[in-house]
Amino acid sequence: MIFKILTIIIVSFYLFITIRYLNRLAVFVKNYKKVKKLGNVELEKETLFIIPMYKEKKMARDTFNFFFNIASQNENVKVAFVCTAKEDDGKNETTYDILCDEKAKSKSESMFVYKYPKTTGIMAHQVNYGVKKYSEDTKNTDFWVAIYNCDSRLDKISLNEIFYSINNAKVQTVFQQYSYYHIPGARFKSIPLSSAVWQTRWSVFKENAMARNRCLYRRKIKNFNTFYALFEPFSYCIGHGIIINAETFIKVGGMPEDSINEDTFMGYIICSEGLEIEPLYSMEKAESVSSTKTLIRQQSSWFNGPVRSLEYYKQYCRDNDCTFKRPICKEENKKTAKIRAFKSFDYALAWMFSPVIMLVILPICSILGYGLFGILITLLTAEIYLYFVNLMMFLALRKHGIKVLMPSLIFDILFYFCHGLSTFIWLGKNITGKNRIDNKYKTER
């Protein structure tokens, strides 16, 4: 009897989540349709697009030309590529060399190529260095910063929404654009392709939705306190698509340089400082990895984001020596900051245990409770939660011109297994001391 009850509880939970996701999809599409109606928007405020680059020789020229085309069409767009001395070996051509060559050919005063001078450091050091260098060179902090990756590609709808948002924003507002993912040249269904679908799904159903819900919640609450913090949705930044005023960027300490995962921590600080992360509804096109081995390594690295949330609270409460000094949590805000850290940690628990519940516990309970019929229950639940939701997203976004990848009945389930497996690989790295900031995994292309 107990196994039948557990089966009913688990199936009901996943069906509830499915219904909630479909509702979020409808809201997302509704807002995206509004964005499409913006028309051509001219950027009125100086904006620096920062692109951190490390071992990106294959994409360097294409990326330079892509952002050069954007800058050449609007005088308020500036672009800074920030490379790192960590790539130098004294023998071979580097990403920095290629970009300097492209800049010389362009003869553009809107394009900048910087090199972070130290042979240590992570993406956060490069981004902070780029903002500081540009600010010092121009003797100006009255500009906006848009952080993107080497593989980031923005269509006209995206640029219109970005420009419109910046034109009408207050200095304290932080925007976050989310991504849909593709694999160049992929022809057949595979685990990596299902991973790209899952990343897009996470952008729409979790990251965008939680940012929107938090904004709506904070605007309803006039006197925010510990009680209200218990019910506040948690939202965070991702490493590309962050759009923030330079003064605000400096005020919140820039990107945290003392954490293996800089973007989740940065979002935590922004939220804890009382600022909003407002979601954009146009989507950046980004690349996903093409091999199963690489995606598992990548996911195990990304798991650092939510699983280290309690460390963020501790770091927020003490002094630091980052490029831009991070604010220290005020005594009266420590309770809400701690609650926010636990809410962020919830994502880690869901990441680790949801695949285990669906792919291990549910099959066991359903078979012991319902016999062979339990196999059908498990398969239907998995296909509804994974494939059906992905299919609805595919149909809805494709209809409006967002070229997301098509899901797969089989590989979506296989990916979900790898998704959960990555958390246990993270655990193994932690035990063996291989999960450190000085050897942070760089995604291979």
**Poorly predicted residue ranges:** none
Counted beta strands: 7
Number of H- or I-type helical stretches: 15
Order of helices and strands: HEHEHEHEHEHHEHHEHHHHHH
- Please report which band the strand proportion falls in: under 5%, 5-15%, 15-25%, 25-35%, 35-45% or over 45%: 5-15%
Rg measurement, Å: 22 Å
Question: Reading side by side through the largest sheet, how are the strands ordered?
Answer: 3-2-1-4-6-5-7
Structural account:
The protein has 445 residues and is an alpha/beta fold. 56% of the residues lie in helices and 11% in strands. The protein contains 15 helices and seven strands. It has a seven-stranded mixed beta sheet, with helices on both faces. Strand 1, helix 2 and strand 2 form a beta-alpha-beta unit. Helix 1 crosses helix 6. It is globular, with a radius of gyration of 22 Å. The N and C termini lie far apart (51 Å). The mean pLDDT is 94.
Features of this protein?
alpha/beta; 445 residues; 7 strands; 56% helix; 15 helices
Task: Lay out the secondary structure.
Layout: H1 2-36, E1 47-52, H2 60-72, E2 77-84, H3 95-106, E3 111-116, H4 123-138, E4 144-147, H5 156-167, E5 174-182, H6 191-220, H7 226-229, E6 242-245, H8 246-251, H9 262-272, E7 277-287, H10 292-302, H11 304-307, H12 309-316, H13 334-370, H14 373-399, H15 411-432
Parallel strand pairs: 1-2, 1-4, 2-3, 5-7
Antiparallel strand pairs: 4-6, 5-6
Helix pairs in contact: 1-6, 1-13, 1-14, 2-3, 6-15, 10-15, 12-13, 13-14, 13-15
